[in-house]
Amino acid sequence: MGWFKRIKGGITTSTQNKKETPxxxxxxxxxxxxVTPTAENEANLWVCAKCGHHQRIGSxxxxxxxxxxxxxxLFNEQIFSNDPLHFTDxxxxxxxxxxxxxxxxxxxxxxTAIGTADGEKLIVAAMDFNFIGGSMGSVVGEKLSRAIDRxxxxxxxxxxxxxxxxxxxxxxxxSLMQMAKTSARLSLLSKKGIPxxxxxxDPTTGGxxxxxxxLGDLNIAEPGALIGFAGPRVIKETIGKDLPKxxxxxxxxxxxxxxxxxxxxxxxxxxxxxxxxxLAS
Amino acid sequence: MVxxxxxxxxxxxxxxxxxxxxxxxxxxVDVTKTIAELExxxxxxxERIYAELTPWQHVQVSRHPDRPYALAHINALxxxxxxxxxxxxxxxxxxxMVGGFGSIDGKTVMFIGQQKGINAKMRVYRNFGMxxxxxxxxxxxxxxxxxxxxxxxITFIDTPGAYPGIEAEERGQxxxxxxxxxxxxxxxxxxxxxxxxxxxxGGALGIGIGDKVFMLENAWYSVISPExxxxxxxxxxxxxxxxxxxxxxxxxDMLEHNLIDGIIPxxxxxxxxxxxxxxxxxxxxxKKHLTRLSKMDAEERIEKRIAKFSAMGSFVEx
Lengths: 281, 318
Ligand SMILES: [Zn+2]
What we know:
- By secondary structure, chain A is of the alpha/beta class.
- Chain A folds into 2 domains: 23-55, no CATH class; 56-280, 2-enoyl-CoA Hydratase, Chain A, domain 1.
- Chain A is built from 9 helices and 10 strands.
- In chain A, helix 1 packs parallel to helix 4.
- By secondary structure, chain B is α/β, with parallel strands linked by helices.
- Chain B has 2 domains: 5-52; 58-310, 2-enoyl-CoA Hydratase, Chain A, domain 1.
- In chain B, helix 1 runs antiparallel to helix 2 and helix 6 runs parallel beside helix 8.
- The termini of chain B are far apart.
- The interface between A and B is large, with 64 and 53 residues.
């Protein structure tokens, strides 16, 4: 307890100064090794111009991509994990949290914001993979639940951008129950007939896939993302066989009937705005 | 009989008891007194050992091969009136997930549960209690059927996890579980869930959204098994005992953190040592809560169910 107070001052300043892209003037594509000037990479929305590889960006970049003129209001920023189980593995959970906060400038693995996309009002909850693998603990569950509640109160559509390895193991059953909690809130949103678009990005696995990520009115994904319930390594170990090529990619999941559409990042904002307009008119 | 490593004292006494009984049967020597003493000592040993089980030992008990599985509970609770219903109407019939109607004192109930095999052959047949998507979809189909005819639902949770396989992924394991979570939240009929053995992760939660969620005293419930947790966080399987403690996965821990609604006691020595008493404890709790829940109207039940799960979480706000 109290660890977040010690670093709070540090966080708020470092958030402002934090660069959203890797340091340096050049970006090397992990897909095709093409080297691109950082500014060009940013202008291309962190997608490789040569091979189309979608880089793992975070909430800040998605807010920038989706909201008009880069204007949006973040809400419920001051919620922190309090390590309810006093979890320690090779090191205390509080230490991990503290270090991750300092390193990323984030408070947990999801941020929620309200704004407009091509004039269409919406609330976006976007996950940050660089915060303990985007894992879902109580804070992620609470912030997403509050975002859903705000959608209901203000009659605003919801978009959730998932990028997560699944559960926050250090919160054990608390983490598990966030699947139930967020599904509970989504059941209320659904009853109100308010649209929910779920965007699955690389990677979306485990408890995230088995709860809100698969519960959109529309489930869409970025190209080439890893999407699945069990991780590929676990499956390989269980069945003792090699996995098929393209197994658990967005394209694979679409072919098997669990995605409505694969939307490249460049088309994301117009797609969302257009869809919201269609649902409203 | 199968004895767990920490049940050695009980094992030795049981062996002595068997020998004494054999002598008694021959009729040459009267060992009535010895037998009575041994029985008394066995009870004392059970009490002593089971009074202070470690979290890992609870996990061991929850996996005991003689422990009653879902169908045993269902048959006992329904007084053998259970009629199993099969299939998800889409792909196939998942043998790791069972369900159907049965009656408790003349009242029809929908029973659903993950079923483990009772011997080597059946364990494979039941896929070790690991359901595929069609298992979760069968469960949801049957819950809808119960809702249509206004019958309460009782689920028995006992799984090492949802099955991680190629076909499971192809048929949407994640979507199947997610769908159950959101649909179960809005079920108009009473739902009681009982973790009777292993409650591992989303695979357990997939039939675990209830107005009342109970755990048997020696069951465990968490986001991951202690072995897998050890592998991931300690990078070795050897820390499973430490992982079991850190995960706070016992019934007592889960109740302390308000993540379940209650604990159903087991006989001293665990459910495997005395099935009948276990069934009686379960029956008592189920009947009490079925009566209470049936008196509420559907909207009130749903509201309370949603409020309960919505309150789960621990954080601080500045
Ligand atoms: Zn590239």
